Each structure stands twice: as C-alpha cells, then as structure tokens.
Amino acid sequence: MEVFEAPPPHKTIIDDALPLSCTFETYRLVDRHIEYVIRVQRGYYNGKHWTVFKRYNDFVALDKEIEARRYDIELPPKKIFGNFDREFIVQRQNKLQKYMNQVLENLILSSSVWVKRFLDPENYCESFQDSALQYASMALRGKPDFHNLKPLPYIGWRFKKHYCSVKRYNEAKREYILTWISEYGPNRCLSDKELQSTFKVFLDLQHPFIIPIVTGNCYSSGTLIIRSNCVRGSLRELIYDRAPFDSFIRKCSYRSERILLPSDAIYTIAIQVLHALVYLHQKGIPYGNLHSGNIFIEDDVAKISDVENGIFGLTSIYQSYLVENRRVHSMEDIDVYCFGHVLYEMVFGERLQSPFCDMIPPDCDENLKPILELILSSSPKSKLPSVKAILSTAVFDVSASNIVLNEPPRCKVTTSTKEFLGRCRKTIEDRMHKEQNELRKLRKITYLKEQMKIEEQNGSISSREKRKMKRVKSQVPLTASSPEQFENMSNGSTPTSVSTESSFRNSSCDKLSENPPEVRATPPSSAPTPVSDERNVFLQSIVNFNKGNLKQTKAKEAR
C-alpha cells in the first residue's frame, strides 16, 4: 500500500533522547513586541546549533502545555505596563532563562513534544498524532479480528510511539493496546527484510515475566504491535497513584505525599524483573529500555514490556545519563544501570534526577542500600555488577527461592536471527562508546583549558604546553562563530546556560543549580567589520601622531 512506503532516504533520523540546551543571547523589538533571541543546541558536544525567536506569549503557551507548575517550576508573571523598560526586559530575560533551565534539566519535561517543538520547530513541526492515527487505521485493516480504534494521546514518553485501545470481536469486554511506532530510532541497523525476520522472535517469545505480543507487523514506515491491556497499569502509575491513560507528564508530576511500596513488594518486583533480564541476556536480545513505565503488574506478577525496542533502534530514556557514566560498556551494563533507577524509584517513591547518587538517603532499606550504592555510584573504579550477581545477593537470593515459574519460557532464535540480534547489540554499544569518547575529549579540553588559565595567570606557561593545547582543540570540530562561543565550548559546555560541566562532576543525587548566569543586557548590534593590516597601520600612525616632529617652514610673502 502507498501509505506504507518507506520514508524519503534524505530524511535525517534524530535521536529524541538527546538533550536540548538553550541560552538567551539578546532581545529585539519587532512590531512593538519584545522578541528574545535564543541559541539552541542538541547534545553536549556535536556543535549543531540554531537560533529561534520567541515572545513572552510563546512561553505562556508552552507552560500551559507542559504544566510546569506540577513540577514546581514557575513561569515569570505577566506585566501589563512598563514592558518596554530596559531594566524590566533584562530581569524578565534572566527569569525566562532560569525557567528554561529548570524545564530542560527535568528529564520528563525535556523529552516532551512541546518542548522539542518550541526549541526545534523545523524538525518537530508536524502533527505526529494525526499521521500516526492514519497509519494505525490502515494497518489495522490487516487485522480483521480487531476494531473500535480509540487514540490514547501521549501516555508514553516517546511522542513518535503512539497508543490506541482496540477490541476483539469475540471478546467484547477485553481491551487491547495497539502501539504504532511511526519512526525507527537512530540505532537501527537491519534492513526491512531482516527486521521482519527478527521481529518473529518476539511474536513467539513467551516468558512468565514478559508481556507477550498478541499480533504485529513490521512495515517500512513503522511497526504495528498489539498487546493485552493491563488494567492496573504500569509500575509508574502504581508509584505515583495515577490513571493508566493519563498523559505522561501528568503521571510523573510531583505529589505532596510520596507513595512508598512495601519492602516485600519491592523485593518481589525486583526479582521478577531480574529473572526476565537474565533470560533476555541468555538469548542475546538487546533491550536497554527498562524503566518504571515498561513494568506492568498483572495478577500480582511484574512483567516487563517493549523488549523489541532494541531491534527498532530506539534509545533509552536514560540515554544522556548513560553517556555520562564511564562504567557502562555493554548492553548488560545498560540494563543493570536502568534497573538501578527503577529500584531507586520503588524505594523512595520518586525518580532519581541525576546520573549518579553517591549519597543514598538515610531512610533507605538497609538490605537494598548496598545494591543502590553499587549501581548508582559515580566512582569509575568499581564495575557494574551483572544481573546474575545482583540475583545472588543475600536479600534477593532468599526471596528468589519463593519464585516459581508456572510455565517454561519459550523463544526460538535461529542462526541468522542470532546474527541480526548481535548486530543490533553491537550497533547500540558502538554508538554509546563513540558518544562517551567524544564526551571524554571535551572533558580533557576542559581540564587543559583550566590549567592553561591558571598558568597564564602565574606567567609560567611554556610554548610546548601551548602547542599541546592547540593540538587537543583541533581534535574536536568547532562551529562556534565567535570567541565567546569557542570559550564556552572549551570550558566543557555548550554556549548555553544549562551547564553540562556541572552534571559531569555531579557525584550526588542533588539537583543542578537553579541560578543561571547573567544574560547580556545589550540589544543586538551589527557585527564589527574585520580590520585589514593596512588599516591597522594607518590607525596606529594617527594615534602616534606628534605635532612637534613636524619641520618648521617659512611661508613666502605674497607679491
């Protein structure tokens, strides 16, 4: 069918998990409105940046969509009179910068389609929901048993992964969840034919702690998956006491009172999740997408979902955290690290909002505290434990003796499929290693730049060290258009107010600083024209002109 044709080959796949950062550079007056000039960059180090222009009303519309107040983030209030006062404009600009810093530091808000569309309108201008509903309706025609398609907008963090509720003709009371993946991720490495062959593994996969796929199909433009609906919802809804079909932003918003799970429930859920991960690792299936929204509770049994995400090239919600963690090297490390975040969320009733947590809160279960410290530590000296090692700890080993598998697991992996799964796993690991290495280069530049500043102040820098610094800088592609931008990149962060260097050195679970640096108050002016060497000489001669050096001459008398 024409609707399932492959997307244009020139279309660039963007990793939606990469963080966006922004800085307010200046402001300008357009049609009697103040427009803020904002420089935006994707990622930490790749230098891809652009400029957007926003009015205050644009921020009001964004705040209404993301409901930032639910996350204790307040937008600067509106003002009726005195909007063109220069001092007020600068104050509002600084407050808006602080507001955007808090939004972008929040993993939930920064991953929403509204924030992406606000800062990157060129790549996120289309209506993803409308086009996905059209594709899902067309794909459902090939499944005559299912009908009554009802969209469930934005119940997950991936806005390119769409959900609908459907029903079966012979099961009027039972509800199913249809998932349409409208765009494959940046880690996809399989052709359409290879992807369809590999997807059959997941259609056949049966495990007591993994939610099975009822039916599904892979197309060039996306994938259709239908699963049974878990009435109680996911672990996230259980922790935050939310309805399963609420929007993702509302599910994860702060509550005045935390809901803490009983210790026995935490042990049981953790063990069942670990058993599912062990089985996936034994079969060579790359997962890497574990979080509380992918763990469902059905008949008091925890089951993980979306185990097929790896072959579609979809990245983890913790992708930015994984890049910063030097202890993460393999797919198993990714699953262990994600399990640490899930365990933290179950124990404390809230998400860990930083890559590491070296200071575990004192109200932690004494049996689980060593496991959290081992997984979430920022120390690069200790390796991440394996899933089997975590299961063999005393607290889980005793509880695991009560776990009984009612049905034997089933998963048929052929030789060719095993090769495809291995290629997917290698692609994910190679990309992560590449990002980690580039981040390490940036840290090295940061360190050398700081040392260079100290030595310049002491007057002890040598020509050899200068050459070394110049050589290291040349290893990273720079697209900065001014010395200030280059200075920011050399200091270990993009030219933004959301400093990445602070997150590099964050060794506790405290939030990043909420105080942004001062924003330049001067309005934009035309860029100075470059001065040639001849003009420099001419200007210097004017500056050094001395009237006393002129020769005295006598004027001839007029006849």
From TrEMBL:
GO biological process per UniProt: early endosome to late endosome transport; endosome to lysosome transport; negative regulation of monoatomic ion transport; protein targeting to lysosome
Spans through the membrane: none
Start and end residues of each stretch annotated as Disordered: 457-535
Record keyword Cytoplasm present: yes
Polar residues: compositionally biased ranges: 476-510
Annotated keywords: Cytoplasm
Ranges of compositional bias, category Low complexity: 521-530
Molecular function terms, GO-annotated: ATP binding; phosphatidylinositol binding; protein kinase activity
Pfam families linked: Pkinase, PX
Domain of life: Eukaryota
A GO cellular-component term linked to this record: early endosome
Subcellular location(s) of the protein: Cytoplasm
Keyword Membrane: no
Name of the protein in its database record: PX domain-containing protein kinase-like protein
UniProt source species: Parthenolecanium corni
